[in-house]
Amino acid sequence: MAITMTEAAARHIKDQLEKRGQGVGIRVGVRTSGCSGMAYVLEFVDRKQNGDISFEYFGVEVHSDEKSMAYLDGTELDFVKEGLNEGFQFNNPNAASECGCGESFNV
Amino acid sequence: MSLLQISEPGQTPEPHQQKRAVGIDLGTTNSLVAAVRSGSTGTLADLQGRHILPSVVRYTESGVEVGHDAWAHAVEDSLNTVVSVKRLMGRGLKDVSTLGGVLPYQFVESDSRMPLIQTRQGAVSPVEVSAEILKVLAVRASESLGGELDGVVITVPAYFDDGQRQATKDAAKLAGLHVYRLLNEPTAAAVAYGLDEAAEGVIAVYDLGGGTFDISVLRLNKGVFEVMATGGDSALGGDDFDRVLAGWILDQAGVGHDALESSSHRAVMIEARRVKEALTDNEVVVASHGDWSGEVSRTQFDELVEPLVAKTLRSFKRALRDAGVKAPDVQEVIMVGGSTRVPLVCEKVAELAGKRPLTSIDPDRVVAMGAARQANALAGNKSADEMLLLDVIPLSLGLETMGGLMEKVIHRNTTIPVSRAQEFTTYKDGQAAMAVQVLQGERELVNDNRSLARFELRGIPPLPAGSAKIRVTFQVDADGLLSVSAEELSTGVSSSIVVKPSYGLSDDEITRMLRDSQSSAVADRDARKLREQEVEADRLSDALTIALETDGEALLNEEEFNALVVELRSLKVVRDSGDADAIKVEIEKVAKASDAFAARRMNQGIRNALSGHKIDEFKES
User: Fold this and answer.
1) In terms of CA atoms, which chain B residue is nearest residue A43?
2) Distance CA B318, CA B313 (A)
3) Fewer CB atoms inside 10 A, N or C side of chain A?
């Protein structure tokens, strides 16, 4: 089971952590809500939680939990630019359908 | 496809719940838009990576250009290129003509009282021009954030009056934007530094831009900001620094100031600006003009601009005095505006305040960034703490009372939103209507203040003078817009007015009005005292005349009657003497002389009221 991230994503997370002034990495996860069933969670991590499943890429720690991993296994976190807009994108092989905007998904 | 941003722990928004909110610094020369993304605040760039958008709009044959493209044509196509439109917002044609010959446009008078600017696409209003700038920033923002904007916070100078604020809101509406609120520029700067998270304290914001200087004193109390005082100089800025340095360069080069053609004048100004900017990081810079070239040291530059800096410090001290605080009470001083990069400015401000001013955020962007933080909070993206910001009104608001006096209902520097009520009464017996003239200013006499609006309360029931109770309520909302209502309390008849944008006041005028109120304080006080006595004398002679006509013959013998007539006559003479003290003495004399008459009238009144009734009847009731 694994979550990966691109170098661009890692670089941006590092920048953001630096600007924020604290935090050890980011947390990715899922929760049930949203128009298509599940929604992604993407947050700063100040303290590692018990039972966290952790990875490290390009010097950035990624934390998740077992429940989320059931939906996220094999997901790649990417940072993309679309014109002036920029942000993170989950490339999730488990997602059977996504809502139009990509903020929530179904497995 | 929406892209995700990193949230604070536990604060990932529900899908589709993240509101897109931005802050806009709609400046005279430049404008900026900023947003909070992944917890950090930053200004948004266009596709070329430029953050600053020159506040310039050009009407071309085929459409509208905004920003850098428009600016490039400002000289060759000046009639169709509008710069510094902010100075025209909410102004009448009369105000505009007092701005002097600096504006090259042709103005057209219009029904809306705001002047229209004649361009090749027809006449456009300042509101429309501002809307074009806002549209460009809004498109940039919605592209950057990946969707339509839910709302914006736009900053305005603290001294903007109702008309100028309303015009700014109208421009946003025209651009299709939802305005969460307008925010005072100094308050935005304080928010950008996160000072709202501190417990409490006094903060000064020193804003030295290209052409204007503003100083504001804010108080922070339990997370609430309150603007205590504002001041400044609308004709002092970095351009003046350039001008004195350019003059010095011309002296050194042995060139007369007047003999310059406009092109070489522009050249020396550009050179002066370059030297000024280079002196921020260097002790000595080489300047050149024509064949001349020489060194300018920072010490020399400091000497040249010292008088200008001293001027800003005087405004600073005055604002502190207005706010009722001493320099050591100021916890933080925030530097805003590109000209605060001049080291001497920082030094002198630090000296006055007794502490190093805050300069870590780019002084050109700090206002937009604060607006973005406020927009983010108002959109509900910041769940925990609600940021409540308060502003003040720059000039007192009040109404005209008898004798042409200004009665202040809300005093200047009162924090808004605010609602104040005051009771007034009628002046004449049976008075059925009352005119309410709404005034703005610090002076005692109506004529020296500015009239904002006028309305009438009709249907006051016929009552003796002084018996009707009319409550006048002044209300100023969070955006500084004023509504005034008057209600007659026994019948509930009421009338009200919302002060619509008409003529604006420049900060110059506000400064002048404040200065006048200081310099004419004694004359004003005396004028008020005199008018009050005159009004009182008129009231007394009217009342006495009526009393003599109705009851004089019945209640007074001939000698008494004639004595009072003489008194009345001499009161009327003294009333016009212009001597408040003499009138006062005379009023007291007449009042005393008519005491016995008044007592008899009262007794007669009671007797009339009681006659024909039994004592028991009164017991019952």
Assistant:
1) B7
2) 9
3) N
* Minimum CA–CA partner of B7 in chain A: A43
Distance from the Cα of B313 to chain A's closest Cα (Å) equals: 34
Chain A positions touching B48 (Cβ under 8 A) are none
CA–CA gap between residue B167 and residue B502 (Å, rounded): 10
Task: Please say if B507 is a catalytic residue.
Answer: no
Angle value at C-alpha B295, between B289 and B301, nearest 5 degrees: 95
Nearest CB partner across the interface for A16, out of B10, B40, B46: B40
B408 with B243: CB under 8 angstroms?
no
Does the beta-carbon distance from B12 to A42 stay under 8 Å? yes
Catalytic annotation on B86? yes
Q: What percent of chain B is modeled with pLDDT above 90?
A: 27
B15 cis-preceded (ω within 30 degrees of 0): no
- The answer to whether residue B301 scores a pLDDT higher than 90 is yes
What residues does each domain of chain A span? 4-98
CB contact under 8 A, A43 and B46: no
Q: How many CB atoms lie within 10 A of CB B457?
A: 22
pLDDT of residue B385: 46
Give the one of A26, A83, A101 whose C-beta lies nearest to B2's C-beta: A101
Superfamily of domain A4-98: HesB-like domain (2.60.300.12)
The answer, yes or no, to whether ipTM is higher than 0.85 is no
Condensed to tens digits (0 to 9), the pLDDT of residues A11-48 reads: 999 988 888 888 888 998 887 654 556 778 888 988 88
pLDDT for B531 beyond 70: yes
**pLDDT per residue as tens digits for the range B110-122:** 655 667 888 888 8
Given a cut of 50, whether residue B71 has pLDDT beyond it is yes
* Of B195 and B413, more confident: B195
> What secondary structure does DSSP assign to B522-559, as a single string?
HHHHHHHHHHHHHHHHHHHHHHHHHHIIIIIHHH--HH
Neighbouring C-beta atoms of residue B600, cutoff 10 Å: 15
Give chain B positions within 8 Å (CB) of A101.
1-2, 15-16
Query: For tokens 């960034």, what's the residue?
Result: B369
Find the mean pLDDT for residues B214-225: 79
Per residue in A74-90, pLDDT (tens digit) is 889 999 888 788 888 88
**Could A84 and B39 be called an inter-chain contact, meaning their C-beta atoms sit closer than 8 Å?**
no
CB contact residues (below 8 A), chain A span 48-107, against chain B: 80, 82-90, 99, 101-104
Q: What is the mean pLDDT of residues B171-190?
A: 90
- Return d(Cα A69, Cα A53) in angstroms, integer: 8
Residues of A in contact with B8 (CB under 8 A): 43-44
- What pLDDT, in 10s, does the model give residues B546-583? 888 888 888 888 888 888 888 888 888 888 888 888 89
Which of B6, B8, B15 shows the shortest C-beta gap to A104?
A: B15
Of B5, B41, B21, B44, give the one whose Cα is nearest residue B149. B21
SS3 labels along B215-269:
EEEEEEECCEEEEEEEEEECCCCHHHHHHHHHHHHHHHHCCCCCCCCHHHHHHHH
Determine, for residues B8 and A104 on separate chains, whether the beta-carbon distance falls below 8 Å: no
For the cut 60, the answer to whether the pLDDT of residue B98 exceeds it is no
Residues 20 through 59 of chain A touching chain B, CB cutoff 8 Å: 20, 26-27, 31, 33-35, 39-46
- Residue B311 annotated among the catalytic residues of the structure: no
